[in-house]
Amino acid sequence: VVVDVLDADGARLVIIPRKADKKPKVWDIHTLRMRNVGGAQAMPYEATLTNGVPPGEIFTSGRFGPWQPDAPGTTPLEGKFTFDRADLSVFKGIAGTLAARGTFGGALNRIDIHGETDTPDFVVNVGGHPFDLHAKYHTIVDGMNGDTRLERIDASFLNSSLVASGSVLDPPGHEHGRPVSLDVRMDHARIEDVMRMAVNTSQPPMVGGLTLTTKFFLPAEDRDVAERLRLDGRFALAGARFTNIDVQGKIDELSRRSRGEPERKDRVLSNFSGRFTLADGRLSLPDLTFGVPGATIRLAGGYALKPGTLDFHGTMLMDAKISETTTGFKSLLLKAVDPLFNRNGGGSAIPFTITGTRKDPSFALDYHRVFKRGNTP
């Protein structure tokens, strides 16, 4: 028996997973029209339905079948889709309204999807700054259990872009969604764009060119995205400057004094590089290097995102001696302490700490390391 046209408005699609410990996947279908149902050929169809998470409206059309009763996963399909008004605020810590479109083909247990998304008002709540996020992607989805391989994602926002690949898999015995695991690379990015995600200020604290590689892992937990996100990678900043005039002025002065030219009035750019990890809302920087003309600063420590607290210790390596960072009578007096800060190869090494908060940092000389024998490199 072949049914020429089948209308099944108000139907429900239920996919029983292969794994016994997993719940069925359920979609409420608003409208469904299929043709040539029951024949040995593919069935053309059109459907509108509501997605569960994130909630949004899907329209899809294409060809499905013929159905393979002995091996349902091998049933062929192809088509196109749109996904509109997807509400991302159901995920704790982010918000925005996503729209997607694309094409798909293959078999039910291996659906090859090419698509793109637009989220004009994407926001990470801890930063509080909406921005336009666009992405193109190629994924492979197992329609029998929802497991997804992210073959390639090309995303762009503001003046930055990234490339990522990874997976969204359903681990055994887990009932709170699927963890996301990615390898992310940013070769053309700006630090001010990234800071808009994580720093709730009217202007980003810093601007400059950014390159970055990181492991990205987002466990399926009932917590804010900023608290459960885990990162492990390396970064470099080139030609960076601070947007706060007072802070940048201190960096300029640091560079001049470190070169032994305290009277000079030039402006400088900074370079940063190092490794970083993020876990439980805390950013750790175990080997940060910060360079300006005349000085290199080596830092290690951490920053808590939500309280905004700082806990760093480091060493500033200067080309000049301490007494050469000023002039006149002060320079003469400082000659007495030059030996405390001398380093191998000339210049000075000054140990220090940074504590307090991002808005009110406290810089102090680390006296313990000053007087510790053999501390200066």
Proportion in β-strands = over 45%
Mean pLDDT: 89
Low-pLDDT runs of 5+ residues are: none
End-to-end C-alpha gap = 86 Å
Overall form? elongated
Helix content: 10-25%
String of helices and strands: EEEEEEEEEEEEEHEHEHEEEEHHEEH
Largest sheet: 21 strands, antiparallel
Identify the notable features of this structure and list them briefly.
single chain, mainly beta, 21-stranded antiparallel beta sheet, 6 helices, 11% helix
Give the arrangement of secondary structure elements:
Layout: E1 3-7, E2 12-15, E3 25-37, E4 43-51, E5 56-64, E6 76-87, E7 94-95, E8 97-107, E9 110-124, E10 131-141, E11 148-157, E12 160-168, E13 180-190, H1 191-198, E14 206-218, H2 225-228, E15 230-242, H3 245-258, E16 270-279, E17 282-292, E18 295-304, E19 310-318, H4 328-334, H5 338-341, E20 348-356, E21 361-365, H6 367-370
Antiparallel strand pairs: 1-3, 2-3, 3-4, 4-5, 5-6, 6-8, 7-9, 8-9, 9-10, 10-11, 11-12, 12-13, 13-14, 14-15, 15-16, 16-17, 17-18, 18-19, 19-20, 20-21
